[in-house]
Amino acid sequence: MERPRTLGPIGIAWFCLTLAVIVYATRMALVVAPTDALQGNVFRILYYHVPHSMLSLIFPYVNLVGSLGFLYWRRRDPLKALAADAVAISAAEVTVVYASICLLTGMLWGKVEWGIWWTWDWRLTSMLVLWLLYVSYLMLRRLSSTGQTQTLAAVLSIFAGIDVPIVYMSIRWWRTQHPSPIFFSGDPDSKLDRTMLPAFLWNLAAWAMWGVFLLTLRYLLERRRQDNEQNAALKAIEDSLELTR
Amino acid sequence: MNWQISYLGHVWSHLRKDLQLEWRSRDSINGMLFFALLVVVVFSLAFDPTAAMSREIAGGILWVALLFASITALNQAWTREQRNRVLEAQRMAPSPASALFLGKALANFLFVALVEVVLAPLFIVFYNLHALGQGWLLWVVMPLGTWALVCNGTFFAALGLRTRNRELLLPLILFPVSIPALLGMMEATTAILTGEFEPGQWIQLLIAYNIAFTTVCLLLFETALSAE
Questions:
Q1: A85 and B227 Cβ atoms separated by less than 8 Å
Q2: Does residue A58 fall inside a structural domain?
Q3: Which pLDDT belongs to residue A1?
Q4: CB distance from B152 to chain A under 8 Å?
Q5: Is A218:A91 a contact under the CB 8 Å cutoff?
Q6: Alpha-carbon gap, residue A176 to A187, rounded angstroms
Q7: For chain A, N or C: smaller number of CB within 10 Å?
Q8: Dist CA B221 CA A141 (whole Å)
């Protein structure tokens, strides 16, 4: 209970390193990387957009693992369960932030390249559905009464985790307009030029590090909130004991 | 073999109780029916469709009407159990919690199916419909789609039982998870009505969705019911 819930020297070092990598990666993306032959400078937003979209597909799994951990430890080890739940909520919030950034930067790029802000293409739609799923998860957490929030949220998180692949399959059948993915697509025309790769990888690393930092910070904040809640409950019990004495 | 019979027995007694209660009051069926009818009328006023256009949009409108209507019934589904603390008794009962869930979900399924049976002729009249594709496939799509809505809906209604703003919460968590199922049933229905493309893969999607989520609901219901 008395453990400090602060970042500590490692956290601060990580934060400084992350800032340095972000600065370097941004310089790589904006200055060093060559201008795209077809799209011009607008292309540079993709160094920001693509890492965010990739990472917003990874954080939901962190949320799922946290939720499964919570359900496993719920009866066996309540203190570990609380930690797992803190991981779950932090991951859900970071997912929503990253998915929002992905959607917004994608819209900016789409306005220039396609001439429209939005289209119901499968990749856009499924990212929007992902965003909706995790916003609804946060809504459930907000609306449910204390004491059972964590269990209900963990259950919903499992539903969301199963839903994500089904959403991808179904919407892929439905629409297609997004440029085919740069990696693993097998399409030679849409391959990332080798000169652009370093800038892309630096950005991926930078935003992954930033995501981990946000996740940790939010986790510590949630742990502090849990501590305060427990202390308040303990104090209430002590006070009621003194009254009866 | 024995436990299977007793499990089905539990499901049956829950189902029978719900059907009996509904038969006596007929609250949720009447409410759903009138609500769905209103949605159909409002949409047909809003779009003023021709026969060709109505074929394009009818699949979507039908399922939106049923979705909204079933929300009204699903919100009420568990309140009966809360009166006189019946739900607490159910939680303490030795019968498996998933039997309670399955009985409730089947009851809701039957209610919504009944609404569909009444609504379908009205729909055909109002929107001047006749299927250009294989009409008999609707007998497959309708039950699959209804189960997809009702199974998760019943589960989420139980999730929201003890929350603030229960009525608000159910659509907020049910709609995002149901999006692939909604897409599946709307596309399949449109495919059957217009006959322009094959509904096959959408029916497969619905089947996969139903299998996945029915399993999850049955496995997690105990946890959701005893969330403290």
A1: no
A2: yes
A3: 46
A4: yes
A5: no
A6: 15
A7: C
A8: 18
> Is residue A186 assigned to a domain?
no
The better pLDDT of the pair B215, B201 is held by B215
Tokens coding B174:
């049910």
Conformational region of residue B104, where left means phi above 0, alpha means psi within -120 to 50, and beta covers everything else: alpha
Query: Cβ A143–B205 below 8 Å, yes or no?
Result: no
**Tens digits of per-residue pLDDT, A102-137?**
999 988 888 888 888 888 777 788 889 899 999 999
Shortest Cα distance, chain B CAs vs residue A167, angstroms: 5
Which pLDDT tens digit goes with each residue over B118-140? 888 888 888 777 777 777 888 88
Which of B60, B167, B73 is closest to B114 using CA atoms?
A: B73
CA angle B197, B198, B204 (to 5 degrees): 140
∠ CA B178-B97-B100, rounded to 5°: 70
Q: How do the domains of chain B map onto residue ranges? A: 2-225
Q: What is the Cα–Cα distance from A71 to A50, expressed in whole angstroms?
A: 33
Residues from chain B that touch A140, judged by Cβ atoms under 8 A, are 159-160, 163, 169, 172-173
Could you give the dihedral angle defined by the CA atoms of residues A58, A64, A69 and A70, in that order, rounded to the nearest 10 degrees? 130
**Cα nearest neighbour of A161 on chain B:** B177
DSSP string, B12-79: HHHHHHHHHHHHHH-HHHHHHHHHHHHHHHHHHHHH---HHHHHHHHHHHHHHHHHHHHHHHHHHHTH
How many domains does chain A contain in total? 1
Question: Does A99 map to a domain?
Answer: yes
* pLDDT, chain B, mean: 85
- Residue A158 domain-assigned? yes
Query: Cα dihedral angle (B119, B121, B125, B130), rounded to 10 degrees?
Result: 120
Gyration radius from chain A CA atoms: 21
Centre a 10 Å sphere on the Cβ of residue B95 and count the other Cβ atoms it contains.
16
Mutant choice from B206, B213, B220, B225 vs A, greatest count of A C-beta within 10 A: B220
| Minimal C-alpha gap between B20 and chain A (Å) | 30
The position carrying tokens 């997004």 is A178
Residue range of the domain that includes A109: 10-33+44-178+195-244
Q: What element of type H or E holds A130?
A: helix A122-143
- Tokens 């019911």 locate to B225
- Prediction pTM value: 0.85
Interface test with B, best of A124, A134, A150, A156 (most B CBs within 10 A): A156
